[in-house]
Design a protein that fits this description.
The chain is of the alpha/beta class. Helix content is 39%, strand content 13%. β10 and β11 form a beta hairpin. α1 crosses α7 and α7 crosses α8.
Length: 402
């Protein structure tokens, strides 16, 4: 007989989140809350909804950003410029635990949906304002999209090759803001549990990404040289780069200390004398002689196919990785072995999605709910806030709800 205790419920089970959100930063934050069991009500525009719905059609006809950031939510489509639509949102917020918005700077305040206003009216509410640059300062009203903030935060200056700076291949500023908004909500929930009060949470994309720039920022501010852009190489460690293999693959390796270099020289490069050669014996020497060091490693790995190269490096105790493309990531053997893939429902049928990286052993699995169609839950939510059939019909007739 199995006497193990039943799984713990999702940690945010019973909490309700209302979000007036768009694009990536706020939707990705609230998706984390939904995965952990919260009910998330997504308020969308009537004319197409969250504009991320229109970014592309790559996910079986749906926008890939939207599918990624919006599973597990209920969608209500409202015109917030009409007092009746705004009243519906106020009614939803009155029964909510958390409110999140990332409208253009000043728009939430004009609607009375900024964190300060809402928390004054609802002391237990946790209200999150996500902005590009913060509510004050000379950049407060500046338009903020992910790539623009990557530039302002200096990320682009340290990413790329010596000849060309490049943006990150993912929306790093949006994701940074989303994760600080998510953790800010969790912290505020803990505080509410001890004080009974919610309160505002403020997150800006610039401040979030500036925090992520901690190493190069501190290195530069406190006396070091500005880190060079080195592509896949490391600015102050050698060898640390990706090297081509005989079958057209690329393998990245990292030698972190001189003991590892001696093993690499003996067991992979096949020249043990390089382990004590003054030109290569220390990391400082290898950095000075980076081109020659890289040429030695490239020559050895270029004679092997990728699997052989990885096996040789692993056998020598050298940290290494295969440089994978996205198709290879989707079939990654580690993700498959750990059973990280699930299917989520969408308006076009089930699509593969990764389990969220927060795993809570002994608890119920993450709630990976369906990706909603625009306004899919409008009627049910209008009824939930007490509207009668004739009121709902009038909102639909007048173009206030859909």
């Amino acid at each position: 007989m199995d006497h193990s205790p039943p799984p713990l419920p999702p940690p945010l089970d019973g909490l309700t989140v209302v979000a007036v959100e768009q694009a990536v930063a706020a939707p990705y934050a609230t998706r984390q809350l939904a995965d952990l069991g919260a009910r998330v009500i997504k308020v969308e525009r009537l004319d197409g909804g969250d504009f991320a719905r229109g970014y592309d059609t790559a996910a079986a006809g749906l926008a890939s950003h939207f599918v990624w950031c919006n599973r597990g939510k209920e969608s209500i489509a409202l015109d917030l410029k009409d007092p009746r639509g705004l009243d519906v949102v106020r009614r939803l917020i009155a029964d909510a635990d958390v409110f999140v918005q990332n409208l253009a700077q000043g728009a939430a305040a004009r609607l009375g949906l900024d964190a300060a206003t809402l928390c004054a009216a609802h002391p237990r509410l946790i209200a999150v304002d996500i902005s590009g640059y913060g509510a004050s300062g000379p950049y407060a009203d500046k338009r903020a999209y992910d790539m623009l903030v990557q530039c302002e935060a200096g990320l682009v200056s340290v990413t790329g090759t010596p000849e060309q700076p490049v943006k990150a291949g993912i929306p790093a500023a949006d994701i940074a803001a989303a994760m600080y908004a998510f953790s800010g909500v969790l912290a505020a929930l803990v505080r509410r549990g001890t004080t009974g009060r919610g309160g505002p949470v403020e997150v800006s994309m610039l401040e979030a990404l500036a925090e992520w720039m901690g190493h190069p920022l501190h290195h530069t501010m406190h006396g070091g040289a500005v880190p060079a852009r080195t592509g896949l190489a490391h600015a102050v460690i050698a060898p640390y780069d990706a090297y081509a293999t005989a079958d057209g693959g690329r393998v990245l390796l990292s030698v972190q200390n001189d003991r590892e270099w001696r093993r690499l020289a003996e067991q992979v490069v096949g020249r043990p004398e390089l382990g004590t050669d003054p030109a290569y014996a220390t990391n400082a020497a290898r950095v000075v002689n980076r081109e020659r060091t890289d040429a030695l490693v490239a020559g050895a790995l270029g004679a092997l196919d990728a699997d052989e190269a990885l096996a040789r490096l692993e056998g020598a105790g050298i940290a290494c990785a295969r440089l994978r493309n996205l198709h290879e990531l989707a079939e990654h053997p580690q993700l498959a072995a750990r059973e990280r893939w699930r299917e989520v429902g969408t308006p076009v049928g089930p699509l593969r999605a990764l389990l969220p990286p927060i795993t809570l052993p002994g608890g119920a699995e993450a709630r990976m709910g369906d990706v909603p169609a625009l306004g899919e839950h409008t009627e049910a939510l209008l009824r939930a806030v007490g509207m009668a059939d004739e009121e709902i019909a009038a909102l639909r007739r007048d173009g206030v709800a859909a």
